[in-house]
């Protein structure tokens, strides 16, 4: 097998220290999906590019394929999104959750996805100055699920198509549920929470933020976050299960 080094844009989604001076880096690349690489010697102070191999840096990276791990042989900074994020606890945790979710989505897709990479960098840029980090995270997750083909139905009943608004939600049937279709264990939700998710999924940011800043906004955004996470979790588990089944056949 011919092995040649290649370049790609990437965001660091995880790092682990390895040995005395090396670091294992998990990258979401723009065109090659998730890549795991080792950056040798980067924890030494004279390392040329060690400081760029961290969260929230958009890098132009050079990788050399290896048997298990690739070697990171160079990295140039394209953009730095850390300012405004690393010194703000809420933005930091929401941004980390976006990176972690992007890693899981990219792993489930098993191929390069420039849209996901671009959408993640836009989300980090938005995160740097938002007053509502969790809402920005939910917008990222909803749009990423729509891109993956798992968009929750947020108005019509996901099962029978009866027009909403409805007051129940269950990931197993694909989102909103009417009174006839709601499965046991459905979450009882205010219709405005589903409307907030719909606005976020369609990038109607000003209208979404207006709703979040209304009197009921705190409650609505908490509910929207819970449903978004539940929907993501359910679909990632389905995906992992179906990949496991495919591996066995
Ligand atoms: Zn129905």
Automatic annotation (TrEMBL):
Keyword DNA repair: yes
InterPro entries: ARFGAP/RecO, DNA_rep/recomb_RecO_N, NA-bd_OB-fold, RecO, RecO_C
A biological-process GO annotation: double-strand break repair
Keywords: DNA damage, DNA recombination, DNA repair
Domain of life: Bacteria
Keyword DNA damage included in the entry's annotation: yes
Gene Ontology terms: cellular component: bacterial nucleoid
SUPFAM superfamilies, per the entry: ArfGap/RecO-like zinc finger, Nucleic acid-binding proteins
Homology family: Belongs to the RecO family.
Protein name: DNA repair protein RecO
Naturally occurring in which organism (per UniProt): Corynebacterium hylobatis
High-level lineage: Bacteria, Bacillati, Actinomycetota, Actinomycetes, Mycobacteriales
